[in-house]
Design goal:
- By secondary structure, the chain is mainly alpha-helical.
- It has nine helices and two strands; from the N terminus they run αααααααααββ.
- Strands 1-2 form a two-stranded antiparallel ribbon.
- The longest helix is centred in the first third of the chain and has 23 residues.
- The relative contact order is 0.09.
Length: 206
Amino acid sequence: MDKRFESYLDYLEHLLNEYINEKGSDEGFYVKAAFCEGLRLEGLEYYERYVSFFVLEEFEKSARDSDRNLRLFDIMEKYAPEDYRNYFEQYRSYILSMNIRAKCLKQAKDGNIEQALKIAEDGLKKREAYFTAHNIESDLLRNTDYIVVANLRDNIEKGLSYEELMKHPGLKETIQEMQMKRSLESLRFLGLKMILICDKISVKVE
């Protein structure tokens, strides 16, 4: 990969833009399976990072990294081989939920309750519109990922403060969040402290 780019996704977006500038459209552009595999592994790293940020209540960074993976999903949907398209799409519901929750809780944490409610409501509408446009069965709109966001919206409407929202999320934490919390607790137990600085994870021994 060209060293000018920080990630495979950045490089791929650059290649796509160059292709469109040269050809006049994206027709004929595709991503080879080997490159898709690199993107998949890179996406997993960002997944672990945005869940970590979410658990640590660094919601702005969690939203940024989940936005990044949604960009990846959109490109894979259009240009990747079918196997990789299907692989990424199975996780879209979860990442959409995480992205909405992170943006919503960031506003609630800052005291912007009305904006938090708007983000939750708009997020649910966009989520439904996406799955409807892609002919995904309507019952999937009511899965756990959807319900978590809907319950968050309902709790905001009830007037719960940020602290109350964190105590009463509407559903138990996702498996991923619980696993991440256990990992962080294990690090602390061993006398290590995880610090997220400049978006990089460093470990200090105390």
